[in-house]
Amino acid sequence: MAEIFGIPVPLLLGQLMLGLMNGAFYAMLSLGLAVIFGLMDEVNFAHGAFFMMGAMFAWMGGQYFHLGFWWMLLLAPLAVGLFGLLVERLMLRRLRGMDPIYGLLLTFGLTLLIEGLFRTFFGVAGSPYNPPALLGGTLNLGFMYLPTYYVFAMAASLAACFGTWFLIERTKLGSYLRAGTENPALVQAFGINFPLLVMLTFAFGSALAGLAGVLAAPIIQVSPLMGSNLIIVVFAIVVIGGMGSVMGAIVSGLALGVIEGLTKVFYAPISSTVVFILMALVLTVRPAGLFGKEK
User: Fold this and answer.
1) With 80 as the cut, is the pLDDT of residue 295 above it?
2) For FRET with 180, which of 35, 107, 131, 141 sits at 20 to 30 Å CA-CA?
3) How far apart are alpha carbons 253 and 275 in whole angstroms?
């Protein structure tokens, strides 16, 4: 069997594939944070809770309303997006213009509240969520057998990432959003309802987190604590890519997933901390992040 640095090639390729899949989830979660920060200059600490809500709503839809995966792939992100819209309209908007630390504290408290409610009603034990029958089975890649659903989840995550990038960077709506981050008063002077755009953008970023939760539900155990286990890593990825950079979130998320997968092969003990090591190195060399703008 061929080897690279003493590692069997099939094992190396398998970890690369799993790392790319994890990276696609990292990228989509990081993207929602980056979009919200880039427009509102606010760190949404409740993003992990929104991810958890998407997965829990998908599980609840199947458990209590007998709605299949495809229905919940549409309805759960919409529900999380609507919740995010209400959070921005009723809470965060009142803090606009104040020190960003107040928004961080508010969303941190909101995270504790959301997780506490779900823990009270559903406990902390994980629950399985089966993928749709259409995506059952496995694919033989030659070097590993990969569940068909994993391929779908990775493709859907990448499609969501690059679709969002196109919306922000290549459409007229995206140009309004980018202009509003620089000079909101000027944008409103042209008759554009910028507060409405901010509210819808926060809802969109929240819906992205909910979509990631639905896609992740058949892969990991659905639990009220699943978001808190990921959010710190996602924040680190956003910092590495550059706060507010859409492309930075996508590239850093994918790269960190692959690096994490390779680290598990070559030196597993640091696989859970490699993202923070890289964050420290990047901030030392480029404090604004790899794709961030120096102020």
Assistant:
1) no
2) 107
3) 10
